[in-house]
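User: Please go through the entry that follows and flag anything odd:
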Amino acid sequence: DVQLVESGGGSVQAGGSLKLSCAYSGFADSRYCMAWFRQAPGKEREGVAFIGTDGTTSYDDSVKGRFTISKDMYRRNLNLQMNSLKPEDTAMYYCTYDPLSGDCDSRLYPYTGQGTQVTVS
């Protein structure tokens, strides 16, 4: 079974940094996409950072230049380094996986972790 377990959320002041991690298991390191999504209260889920198995990354314009997605295939961790955080980054952040490759910013991501809360004040 696919398992995605997020950690690293918390509260931080505007301008600060946080690093989210996602321990993943249950699928082979072949072709797939992984991403970080977020959902704020009253808003729809939105994808903020995407990565393919070849290491290609893409970002939503709202986080470009501030967030960095990376993957440690040895430890099977997906990471999101978040710098220069803003109050509008406040949301529940989810680690997601899609077993199909291709344009990772347009996949459906049917597998999602439980989420970790990020609060920026």
User: Anything to note?
Assistant: The mean pLDDT is 95. The chain is about 0% helix and 50% strand.
